[in-house]
Amino acid sequence: MAEFLQDFESSKDTVVEVNYRLLLVIIETSSSIWAGQGRTTDSLSLQEYLETVIVFINSFLSMDRLNRVLVLAAHNNASYYLYPSAGIASLDTKSLFDSVDMSGVSSAIITNSRKLLAETCGTLLTRDVSGLPSALARSLCYANKFKGLVPPGVRLLARALVINSSPVDSSQYMTFMNASFAAQKESISIDTCLLIEDSSLLQQVTSITGGLYLRKAGHSALLQYLLWFYLPEVEIRDWFLQPPKSSVDTRASCCCHGDMTELGHICSVCFSVYCKFTPICHVCETAFKLPQLGIKK
Ligand SMILES: [Zn+2]
Ligand SMILES: [Zn+2]
């Protein structure tokens, strides 16, 4: 701690910025591909996949002693802390000055993911609701708490990375959008790496927050992919060669059917989108007047 304060004091004279960088990693672990469905010869097992992500996380942590990480698993319809195991409760001003024990991060991720899979192996995979919005909201709460703890004059630069292998259901459009706008307000960019199929919803999330959206076909060379595209901070990404950006599908998903809608009705209270006129908003229960037909003269 004394060493940190000494560095911080000397940095005042040389006008060197001292920043905490917080990486919020959300790993989707409920995909059927880990259970063997749709596996190809280059598919990783869940263990290999987690080990790949751990190498990426340790690379991020080794870049600066003030780098910090939060790892969450989006599993079935909920989210779970993989590191730190106690989540927000583990945050205190004392731990801010300690460097992160990388072997502790690796063992916590492996231990907690094994525990999670053992606890949920008997439950059926639910396709209707994803745990991603819950994990996003939790990670933003963690970043907000962290921000309140950093010493005066030190900035917290947070960003998120979502690695997803499952289809994302558009019925959760509103929760994704709420999380995206909250992240945008706090200047937290959300990067997404999709391993199976594209998602226009996650594409919108990255577009709103200024993150990087990429779909990788299959699992081969996943580590190189993560290191090359997602390890550099947002401000220096232009220095690296990147794949051409695809156009963003900005259509909203309707609350009534979950379909992408180009032209629809929007609730003036909660901003829910409907593809057809509805007299009562399903989300906030506001009653609307029926549209009046024009009176012929
Ligand atoms: Zn609809
Ligand atoms: Zn409403």
Automatic annotation (TrEMBL):
Subcellular location: Nucleus
Keyword annotations: DNA damage, DNA repair, Metal-binding, Nucleus, Transcription, Transcription regulation, Zinc, Zinc-finger
GO biological process terms, semicolon-separated: nucleotide-excision repair; regulation of DNA-templated transcription
Organism: Oopsacas minuta
Gene3D superfamilies: von Willebrand factor, type A domain
Main function: Component of the general transcription and DNA repair factor IIH (TFIIH) core complex, which is involved in general and transcription-coupled nucleotide excision repair (NER) of damaged DNA and, when complexed to CAK, in RNA transcription by RNA polymerase II. In NER, TFIIH acts by opening DNA around the lesion to allow the excision of the damaged oligonucleotide and its replacement by a new DNA fragment. In transcription, TFIIH has an essential role in transcription initiation.
Name of the molecule in the record: General transcription factor IIH subunit 3
Quaternary organization: Part of a TFIID-containing RNA polymerase II pre-initiation complex that is composed of TBP and at least GTF2A1, GTF2A2, GTF2E1, GTF2E2, GTF2F1, GTF2H2, GTF2H3, GTF2H4, GTF2H5, GTF2B, TCEA1, ERCC2, ERCC3, TAF1, TAF2, TAF3, TAF4, TAF5, TAF6, TAF7, TAF8, TAF9, TAF10, TAF11, TAF12 and TAF13. Component of the 7-subunit TFIIH core complex composed of XPB/ERCC3, XPD/ERCC2, GTF2H1, GTF2H2, GTF2H3, GTF2H4 and GTF2H5, which is active in NER.
Cellular compartments per GO CC: transcription factor TFIIH core complex; transcription factor TFIIH holo complex
Family, similarity comment: Belongs to the TFB4 family.
Domain of life (superkingdom): Eukaryota
GO MF terms held by the record: zinc ion binding
Main location: nucleus
